[in-house]
Write a structure and sequence with these properties.
Helix content: under 10%
Shape: globular
Number of strands: 18
Largest sheet: 8 strands, antiparallel, barrel
Number of domains: 2
Distance between the termini: 81 Å
Order of helices and strands: HEEEEEEEEEEEEEEEEEE
Number of helices: 1
């Protein structure tokens, strides 16, 4: 004799199906998940799309509080965006977002968009045109929400996945980021790629990379820390690898250990000479490469 299905069993079955559907939805190829933002990255839903945010846990002056890579739709058109946020005032140690006091200082940001490969918008938001505020109501999750105001008005909510189909990887740095072509010298494998620097004035504060190494695709994002008293020399900098989807399958976290500038001498018609920055010798944890000016 067959026993009737109990209420508790039916409840268990319904919950199991719900969890299965949620997991399937989160792992859908039309979704961006936390794993796509890489080790150390935080995923946010906002700007009618997603943001992969890398927070800076080093409070040294001159470094961004955080950098982000984002994609979305604005005015019905898709875009991709690189941005960085800084503490206002220009002096004193930079404050790590997770340690911000209740009365937080002003935080400003800048962002530039890269047109092409599916992205139609090409806006630039100079430093100071964007203001940042953190949601500090939840002491255990002080980064659960980020409010952006000024030239853009957005609220970013921390998320486990965002329903969005990522764009193909860009092949240029667009009109606003400083462009470099990367030549990997070690290891000796087939390679190609672009390096894009986000500038704060004349200072390089963030980098974005896309290309192939040994037949594998990659997309990197990171911040740069200037050596005190210099504009071009940079010390160690952290980064993250956007992984899966259209980002690539090289998912190890990139860290720049040093960037040594290379110069050439140029003379004008009056015989006055000047130094011109032509590239960088860049050392990462597992490789070395030269960045050459592509302009």
């Amino acid at each position: 004799m067959k026993r009737p299905l109990t209420f508790s069993f039916l409840t268990f079955l319904a919950l199991s199906l719900l969890v299965h559907r949620q997991e399937a939805r989160a792992n859908s190829p039309t979704n961006v998940t936390t794993s796509n933002c890489g080790v150390g990255g935080t995923l946010y839903r906002g700007g009618d799309g997603f943001r992969c945010v890398l927070f800076n846990e080093d409070s040294s002056e001159g470094s961004p509080l955080f950098v982000w890579y984002g994609e979305g739709v604005r005015d019905g058109k898709p875009y991709r965006q690189i941005g960085a946020a800084f503490r206002g005032g220009g002096s004193g140690p930079y404050i790590v977002p997770s340690r911000l006091p209740t009365s937080q200082p002003s935080i400003f940001a800048e962002a530039s968009e890269i047109r092409g490969e599916g992205a139609l918008l090409n806006a630039n938001f100079p430093a100071g045109s964007l203001q940042i505020a953190f949601d500090l109501d939840q002491a255990d999750q002080p980064r659960s929400r980020i409010d952006v105001s000024g030239a853009l008005n957005e609220t970013w909510y921390r998320a486990s996945f965002v329903a969005f189909q990522p764009l193909p990887r860009p092949t240029t740095c667009g009109d606003y980021l400083e462009p470099w072509i990367a030549k990997v010298t070690q290891p000796a494998v087939e390679n190609s790629g672009i390096r894009c620097a986000l500038l704060l004035g004349r200072r390089r504060v963030a980098w974005f990379a896309s290309g192939q190494l040994g037949g594998r695709d990659y997309t990197y994002l990171g911040f740069l820390s200037p050596r005190p008293g210099t504009e071009d020399q940079l010390t160690s900098a952290d980064g993250l690898a956007l992984c899966g989807q259209n980002f690539g399958n090289l998912c190890s976290r990139p860290r720049i250990q040093s960037m040594i500038p290379s110069y050439a001498t140029s003379s004008d018609t009056q015989g006055l000479s000047s130094r011109i920055l032509v590239g960088f010798r860049v050392r990462l944890e597992s490789s070395q490469e030269n960045w050459e000016n592509s302009r």
